[in-house]
Amino acid sequence: MTALEWAGLLAAGSGERFRQAGYATPKPLIPVAGTPLIGRTLSLLEAGGIRTVYVVVNEAFAPAVRRYVEDLSLRLTVRWVVRTTPGSFHSLLALVPFLRGRSRVLLATVDAVVNPAEFRAFLFAGRADDVSWDGLLACTAFVRDERPLWVRTDTEHRIREVAPPPDRATCVTGGLYVLSARALSMTESARARGIDRLRDFLRFLAEVGYSLQGYHFSRIVDVDDAADLVEAEHFLTSGLSGT
Predict the structure, then answer these.
(1) What contacts 140, CB < 8 A, 6 or more positions away?
(2) Which of 20, 9, 200, 33 is closest to 111 using CA atoms?
(3) What pLDDT sits at residue 173?
(4) Average pLDDT over residues 29-48
């Protein structure tokens, strides 16, 4: 199996919708079923065999988030990249210098709530030796996000189109990506073209001929607001059945 022991965790978002709803807690520390989002995500990474994770967090939230994480009993190594970024692609750019040189890395968003067993299976697929893809993207037919990133896959789950019109799409991405070193090396080219969103970077990879593969999850809840919190807690407390 190919080594997949390094990860980048995107946790620099301001949580604007939560702040507008009156939440004072930094988004990575908002609890879902009693556990803050970043604690839940780090536990998933550790259980999945990730050994080192670089976390990009904005300057305003960094002290509180770091205090919380440093009090956890974790076996994986957490390294911090404190950067206030305008968006997820810029957060990825902040992580690239630390992830460069690895054959494959996991890129995760802090607000993706998933079934732990499905996550472990996703990482297992991400470690397979004989693959033709440059990126393995978590996908789901469960759509709740207000601005989902639709993709069109074929019968073998190869991603044929990123951000097609919804009537051509088959599923949406869910904030978990295994990227090859080859794919990661394209970030500078993407930036030179004016790309500033992660979704546009993924579309760029597809358009210039990089092979992307979808991996199906029964449900991924992207926790962006209070309604998503309710949905995520229902998911986690109802046996993770995806129903």
Answers:
(1) 171, 172, 174, 216, 217, 218, 219, 220
(2) 9
(3) 96
(4) 96
What letter represents residue 187's amino acid?
A: T
Q: Does the global pTM surpass 0.85?
A: yes
Report how far residue 130's alpha carbon sits from residue 113's, in angstroms, rounded to the nearest whole number.
Answer: 29
Paired tokens of 18:
């939560």
Instruction: For helices 37-47 and 62-70, give the axis angle rounded to 10 degrees.
Output: 50
- Per-residue pLDDT at 68 exceeds 80: yes
pLDDT of residue 239: 56
Contacts of 128 (CB under 8 A, 6+ apart): 1, 2
